[in-house]
Specification:
The protein is of the alpha+beta class. 26% of the residues lie in helices and 26% in strands. The strands form nine sheets. Strands 24, 25, 26, 27, 28, 30, 31, 33, 34 and 37 form a ten-stranded antiparallel sheet that branches. It has a six-stranded antiparallel sheet with strand order 23-22-29-36-35-32. A five-stranded mixed sheet has the order 6-7-9-8-12.
Length: 858
């Protein structure tokens, strides 16, 4: 996404010289003597920069400028243009050879799948010339991929194509960060160079740029990183004004067009010399700030929209005209791989080394669509369960489905979330159309992964005979409720019996939705049921029973029984000691063997951050633009307001043989209703918090957070991104985002009094202490023990969802562990805490073999 404003005050560049860092601003027009005197002075002085490497590519957004389907088609067509332009110039003069870098592999894969054998041969010939370069990554990625997705990212192309094109450089443009999990996968794939073209709008870079550094991984391996200027800024070095208008008209808008030969970068001598003068003005500022390298690399996109734009073949003619005049520094139109090789040779020995997670300032945008995020995370859990060894090896068809669904989920986690008008015009057809396509990349994998899991389970269990089968497809043990719709019980069953031991356990029946039934009285409708179509508070609609410590990747056979059964009594002293606030909501819970409570007062509290004043998103930009910390804090206090939900009634308490359940209604002016529930396990120090609320429609910027205060004092937690752990504020690159953190879904607090593990099922974005809205933190807050899950966040002014409203649900688990087994994987435990068991009822008799063959076999 190119979120730059449609006007340009200045070009901001940062740079490093032999490890020293500098930052400067390059105005569009520079002060000083007249143009002729300036030019004469600069031409007399020998420039340090002898070579300008120009990288030409298309910045890929699946959306923003155009509907994702159109954007993807255009990227494929652009590759055709590039192949033909390369082949047309391959035998010509060296200075007139056209070069193109395919920023993303997805365009290459789409092109390859559609191309004829003859066309594929031409493509490979273009690659062999060295003029056509292929980046190693399929997408410009947001930091929400799990380890399986990162594996798919680096195996997107068919292997035989990868080996023929041999990518050497990974390119990540626009996005303000890059997970180490992805960097490790790059190194595993033989890619040791990363080209970053960050867009600093609402974000930032870890170091001044342009600069190079070595990024050291936890295992000691290193990635050479070129921290490029903005991915489209190369154009600004030759032209004083942008040619594009709009700035983002759709490709189908006939009133706009890409630049033609002669529109920009003209090749007549007068124009080239004017471009040279403008370039020298820019370079002079770099050199006066200490830039001492002979090579400077600049990247260029087209000037139609800057994003999702085609190649500009006339660029090669401009470079040739410049060099023909003998202008210095010389220009070289080249590829990302070629320039990165030269940069590493020139700067690698003096480039500084840094290590730590590269957290992303743009990660907050994902919380603008909480339901879609929840659907994507459900899809990932179902895919993991479908690959459990419980069901046997994956057959070819199932493996192909898994790979296709991971690709869809990678596309969902791609950085572009919709139209450039998505916030300004949230209900326009363009906005809704783009987000509909984006959302499908979460909902479609959710449905298909659930179906694949059911096929795998049914195929495995049908041959096991009659019974009620409960399978734990997660890696760690499961203790909790197994829930069934009462409608699936065809007799008056009252209990379940373990097939192996004969032990019986009661079935519990609870109210719920009764579909296709007319409600008869108000008591049959819950507070949430605003549509009043079907009653959702009808007795005996949900059946459930308790399962205790079902080991990971284990199946248990049960039988449904019509006899009643009693729960075995809990062991003596089981259950927590609970203290409550004045409304009956727990403020502490401590189990035997614990020296502290599992949580502190305020668990599950809900707060909204709102912006005061006219045109609030411009106020957000004003706060973001404050470079002085005191000025920013003053504006934050004046313009941001926190509004907390308050208890509407006393908490209701329900006790079962296994858990204590607290439910409480809250009130908040921005929500139609709020319900929170806390369930405390009796036999282990564990709590589950569920928050449900109905957000009232509004395009106003706001943030909702849920609080989880823990008795861990100043201990820094350990989290994970992409399966790779890191410690926020400690294990990060300097200058990266510390206001919020993208994570796999868990945070572990190790203390002398045990380990606290917090797990989020739906919300993969957290902050600490307070909301930290627009704080630009550099140091940890005092209350690192106060974790806040970011449930909703729509502060951005473009590209993300402007108004998600309606019912949203979030679930969190909190566990205390006295000792953490060194061999135990926290990721496995976290995944198991939010996983649901797979349940199948297999009646007597046999299914039609045609159904088994053509329907239920994956």
């Amino acid at each position: 996404m190119n979120a730059r404003l449609p006007f340009r005050l200045s070009t901001r560049l940062s740079l490093s010289v032999a490890g020293a860092l500098f930052c400067i601003c390059l105005p569009a027009s520079l002060p000083g003597a007249g143009p002729a005197a300036e030019t004469a002075s600069m031409e007399r002085r020998e420039s340090v920069i002898r070579q300008l490497d120009l990288i030409h590519f298309c910045h890929t957004d699946f959306g923003f400028t155009d509907h994702p389907v159109i954007a993807r088609e255009m990227q494929r067509r652009y590759l055709d243009i590039a192949v033909d332009a390369v082949l047309a110039s391959q035998d010509g003069p060296e200075e007139k050879k056209f070069c193109w870098t395919a920023e993303t592999i997805i365009a290459v894969d789409d092109w390859w799948q559609a191309a004829s054998p003859e066309r594929r041969t031409e493509f490979l010939q273009a690659v062999r010339t060295g003029q056509l370069d292929i980046g190693a990554l399929p997408l410009n990625q947001a930091p929400f991929l799990n380890s399986a997705q990162w594996q798919r990212m680096l195996h997107w192309l068919p292997e035989e194509v990868w080996q023929q094109v041999q990518p050497k450089v990974a390119i990540q443009d626009d996005v303000n960060g890059f997970p180490r999990a992805g960097a490790m996968q790059l190194l595993d794939r033989g890619i040791s160079q990363l080209f970053m073209g960050i867009n600093e709008d609402s974000g930032g870079v870890p170091f001044k740029r342009p600069s190079a550094f070595w990024w050291k991984m936890p295992d000691g391996r290193r990635l050479f990183v070129w921290l490029n200027a903005h991915y489209g800024s190369g154009f600004d070095f030759f032209e004083p004004q942008e040619w594009r208008r709009g700035p983002v008209p759709s490709a189908s808008d006939l009133r706009f067009r890409p630049p033609r030969t002669g529109d920009v970068l003209r090749t007549d001598e007068k124009s080239v010399r004017a471009a040279h003068q403008h370039c020298l003005e820019k370079l002079r500022w770099l050199e006066q700030s200490g830039y001492a390298h002979e090579i400077l690399t600049l990247s260029m996109t087209s000037q139609w929209r800057m994003d999702n734009d085609p190649p500009f073949p006339a660029l090669a003619d401009f470079v040739a005209a410049w060099n023909r005049l003998g202008l210095k520094p010389a220009l070289r139109l080249t590829t990302a791989s070629a320039t990165m090789k030269r940069l590493e040779q020139a700067l690698g020995k003096t480039a500084p080394e840094h290590e730590g997670e590269w957290t992303d300032w743009w990660a907050n945008g994902i919380a603008s669509g909480p339901r879609e995020v929840a659907a994507s995370r459900m899809a990932k859990r179902s895919l993991a369960a479908a690959q459990s060894p419980l069901w046997g090896p994956l057959e070819a068809n199932a493996q192909a489905t898994v790979e296709a669904l991971y690709k869809d989920l990678c596309l969902f986690d791609e950085h572009t979330w919709g139209s450039s008008w998505s916030v300004a015009l949230p209900y326009s057809l363009d906005t809704i159309g783009q987000y509909n396509e984006k959302s499908a990349l979460a909902y479609r994998p959710m449905a298909r992964a659930e179906w694949l899991l059911s096929q795998r389970a049914r195929t495995r269990l049908l041959s096991e005979g009659e019974g009620l089968w409960v399978a734990n497809a997660a890696p760690a043990s499961f203790s909790g409720w197994v829930q069934l719709p009462a409608a699936c019980l065809r007799e008056d069953f009252q209990s379940v019996e373990e097939a192996q031991t004969g032990a019986k356990f009661p079935l519990y029946f609870e109210p719920g939705m009764k579909a296709w039934t007319r409600p008869q009285k108000p008591e049959e409708l819950s507070r949430e049921n605003s549509s009043a179509t079907f009653p959702d508070n009808m007795p005996r609609q949900i059946a459930r029973f308790w399962v205790e410590k079902l080991n990971g990747h284990t199946i248990k056979k049960l039988r449904l029984r019509t006899e009643t059964a009693a729960e075995p009594p809990p062991p003596p002293g089981a259950g927590p000691s609970v203290q409550h606030d004045e409304k009956g909501w727990p403020k502490s819970a401590q189990w035997p063997g614990m020296r502290r409570s599992l949580f502190l007062a305020g668990l599950g509290d809900l707060v909204a951050v709102q912006v005061k004043g006219f045109a609030p998103r411009w106020t957000i930009m004003d706060i973001n633009g404050q470079k002085d910390e005191r000025s920013r804090e003053k504006m934050r206090k004046e313009k941001l307001e926190e509004v907390w939900a308050v208890a509407e009634a006393n908490a209701a308490v329900q006790e079962t043989a296994h858990t204590l359940i607290y439910r409480q209604e809250l009130r908040h002016p921005r929500l139609a209703w709020v319900m929170r529930q806390l369930e405390l396990w009796k036999r282990e120090p564990r709590a589950r918090v569920t928050l449900r609320f109905h957000r009232i429609s509004s395009e106003a910027p706001e943030i909702f957070c849920a609080a989880f205060p823990l008795p861990t004092e100043s201990v820094l937690p350990r989290m994970s991104n992409g399966g790779l752990p890191f410690i926020p504020f400690q294990d990060q690159l300097p200058g990266t985002c510390r206001d919020y953190f993208a994570m796999d879904g868990w945070a572990q607090y190790p203390t002398a009094d045990g380990n606290w593990l917090w797990v989020s099922r739906d919300a993969p974005l957290v902050t600490f202490g307070a909301s930290q809205a627009l704080a630009r933190r550099t140091d940890p807050p005092r209350e690192m023990n106060r974790l806040l899950a970011i449930l909703f966040h729509n502060f951005w002014y473009t590209n993300f969802v402007g108004d998600s409203h309606g019912v949203m649900e979030f679930q969190f688990d909190l566990v205390w562990l006295d000792h953490l087994d060194a061999a135990a994987r926290l990721q496995d435990l976290a995944e198991s805490l939010v996983a649901e068991p797979v349940v199948m009822i297999n009646a007597g008799g046999a299914d039609d073999p045609l159904l088994l063959k053509h329907l239920f076999h994956p």
